[in-house]
Design goal:
This protein is an alpha/beta fold. The protein has one domain (46-209). It contains six helices and six strands; from the N terminus they run ββααβααββααβ. The chain has helices at residues 55-59, 64-80, 104-116, 126-136, 159-180, 187-205; strands spanning 36-38, 47-53, 86-90, 140-147, 150-156, 208-209.
Length: 210
């Protein structure tokens, strides 16, 4: 389905658009979908990898969904030397008018995820990186204004705090891609890391002033 605000294609079970952070107005509870879902019915399917995290898991600080995502990515990399980025979603907060990054329990879950897997943003899709970064980083609201019926925030992060975030991410990157995935330090690995890093920085700069 499409987000009512930004018209981006999002999973049918998403309660929050991972791209713009807007809550979807008519979302009903549905069984957890399979991890891979088609975005189109054309002959050549476009697939997304989806990892939904429930409200119960967030409140319990349960990181088992994170473990499943990491395991799936590492297996795919070992098999073909590359991977399809994952869209991480948070469900169960549809009645809360705040965006995900303003909900303390969601921020706490994301910070725990970052402590365990600081390289996680490299594994996520563009749509998921934005809201996840807003949860993990110590952001400052620069401006808040009305856009239609919605309140839009503009955020920034202090350079030294982003540098600390990036250093933590870099420290865990080698352990994951080399240690867990078994990649050699060669040109192919360097190309993969550059592609992941470029995607992450593009997504972060779309939501945060650095």
């Amino acid at each position: 389905m499409k987000c009512w605000f930004c018209s981006e294609e999002i999973p049918t079970t998403a309660q929050v658009c991972p791209c713009c952070g807007r809550r979807q107005k008519s979302v009903k509870t549905a069984p957890q979908p399979p991890l891979q879902q088609p975005l189109s019915s054309t002959k050549k399917h476009a697939w997304i990898n989806l990892e939904p995290v429930s409200k119960d898991a967030v409140l319990a600080k349960d990181l088992s969904d994170l473990d499943a995502l990491i395991k799936a990515v590492s297996q795919e990399i070992r098999e073909r030397g590359d991977f399809t980025p994952w869209t991480l979603t948070i469900s169960g907060f549809v009645t809360d008018p705040r965006p995900l990054w303003e909900i303390p329990e969601v921020r706490a879950w994301c910070k725990d995820a970052h402590a365990k897997a600081p390289y996680l943003p490299l594994l996520l899709s563009d749509a998921a990186i934005g809201w996840y970064a807003l949860c993990v980083l110590d952001i400052e609201e620069v401006e808040r204004h009305k856009q239609g019926s919605e309140t839009i925030g503009i955020y920034r992060v202090a350079p030294e705090k982003f540098k600390h975030f990036y250093l933590e991410l870099s420290a865990g990157t080698g352990e994951f891609f080399h240690g867990q995935c078994g990649l050699d330090l060669n040109n192919e690995t360097a190309s993969l890391l550059k592609k992941c890093t470029d995607r992450m920085m593009r997504a972060i700069k779309s939501v945060i002033i650095l």
